[in-house]
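Tokens in:
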């Protein structure tokens, strides 16, 4: 009976101290060990007006009710996030921006506070609408490791849906490394507690790797930028997901200038012809790896693109034999392409045509295994002295193909299309143009001994 009368008391939990009102309330026995505020909760309401005091009291009361309910339920972080998102949406549907109670009391004028209260007249005391409008749902306070899990499992789920298992694994690994570095330096902090100073500690760590005061750098500026960017994106996406897109990002504007960035040097054309295409130069490689190297040299298609071709995109029996580099839309076997401009058709000429006649179903051994393919090829080239300099990698063959097209005076837009680079105006058409592409590529085709295939 006492609690029922208390609920209907218009001045419940109000206490006058001098001529100012305070909110004063006993913490329920069931949550006393969990609420760090002690036996009683006391808040100055900064008003001498009883009506205003009752309005402020209602907001504090709703907030405490929600807090104690969540403590008694032992609410987990995921449930807290769900409740918070629902509160944000519900507040917006009623015409208000969701704010925690403390921000409402500090940031909003009394007229707006009264509008919030009036919008819920007639609602039950524990109504979700009252919680939403009154800011009684606490914002989740995930640690950065928990925020990363949320990013993988919910926030970025649509973004990574089209990636293959290996692409997802590498995409996640890069972001896990960035967060691991952060945790190692400043701890597994709650997202709301991450400060600019924390971000600067991480920036200093990468600065010492990218541009040490003494000695040689052991990481590139792009590596440092990627790791800082991963943290910046995680922070922004997390708070945007919670409904706080305006949250100031402590990782903003912390990056590195790369003045020493160098493109991979291309292989000289005669080196490809006389060394790489020499009989026996690639014989120690298995047939699929050897086929990928030879097709790479004569198409410029990335090794990862070649490794993931399948029977449906290899067309050696067409009037103009070609391959189609495109994403796999199969939900059971997805794979995304690097960029929209990377989706293209590439005519097959010279050794590339012979390779795909031999491998019309592609290279299943290296499907979704481009990392192991790259390691194998670079090791073979190094062991067999197939690199002109220490600065070359197998990927340099892509730059060689581009240089050969330039030297052969192929049209710039055709070059960009065949390389999968962005074109400022609509791409070449199909059909008859494919024949023209083939004729242009024949101008730069490399001679080869059929035995190397």
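Residues out:
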């Amino acid at each position: 009976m006492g609690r029922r009368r208390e609920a209907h008391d218009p001045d419940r939990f109000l206490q006058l101290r001098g001529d100012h009102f305070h909110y004063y309330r006993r913490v329920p026995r069931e949550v006393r060990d969990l609420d760090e505020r002690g036996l009683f909760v006391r808040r100055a309401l900064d008003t001498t007006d009883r009506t205003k005091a009752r309005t402020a009291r209602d907001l504090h009361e709703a907030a405490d009710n929600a807090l104690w309910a969540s403590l008694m339920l032992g609410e987990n972080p995921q449930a807290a996030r769900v409740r918070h998102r629902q509160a944000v949406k519900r507040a917006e549907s009623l015409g208000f921006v969701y704010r925690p109670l403390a921000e409402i009391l500090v940031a909003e004028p009394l007229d707006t506070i009264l509008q919030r209260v009036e919008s819920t007249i007639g609602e039950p005391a524990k109504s979700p609408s009252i919680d939403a409008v009154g800011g009684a749902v606490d914002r989740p306070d995930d640690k950065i490791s928990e925020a990363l899990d949320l990013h993988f499992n919910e926030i970025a789920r649509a973004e990574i849906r089209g990636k293959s298992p290996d692409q997802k694994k590498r995409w996640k690994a890069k972001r896990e490394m960035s967060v691991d570095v952060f945790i190692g330096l400043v701890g597994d902090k709650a997202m709301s507690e991450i400060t600019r100073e924390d971000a600067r500690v991480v920036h200093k760590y990468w600065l010492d790797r990218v541009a040490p005061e003494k000695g040689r750098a052991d990481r590139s500026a792009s590596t440092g930028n990627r790791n800082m960017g991963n943290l910046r994106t995680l922070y922004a996406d997390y708070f945007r997901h919670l409904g706080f897109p305006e949250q100031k990002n402590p990782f903003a504007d912390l990056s590195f200038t790369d003045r020493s960035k160098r493109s991979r040097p291309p292989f000289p054309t005669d080196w490809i012809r006389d060394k790489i295409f020499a009989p026996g130069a690639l014989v120690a490689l298995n047939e699929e790896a050897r086929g990928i190297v030879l097709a790479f040299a004569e198409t410029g298609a990335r090794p990862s693109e070649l490794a993931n071709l399948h029977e449906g995109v290899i067309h050696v029996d067409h009037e103009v034999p070609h391959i189609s580099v495109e994403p796999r839309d199969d939900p059971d076997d997805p794979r995304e392409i690097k960029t929209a401009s990377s989706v293209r058709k590439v005519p097959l000429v010279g050794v590339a045509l012979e390779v795909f006649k031999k491998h019309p179903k592609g290279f299943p051994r290296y499907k979704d295994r481009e990392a192991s393919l790259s390691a194998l090829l670079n090791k073979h080239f190094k062991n067999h002295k197939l690199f002109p300099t220490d600065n070359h990698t197998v990927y340099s063959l892509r730059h060689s193909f581009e240089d050969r097209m330039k030297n052969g005076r192929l049209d710039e837009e055709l070059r960009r299309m065949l390389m999968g680079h962005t074109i400022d105006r609509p791409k070449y058409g199909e059909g008859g143009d494919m024949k023209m592409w083939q004729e242009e590529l024949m101008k730069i085709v490399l001679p080869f001994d059929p035995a190397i295939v």
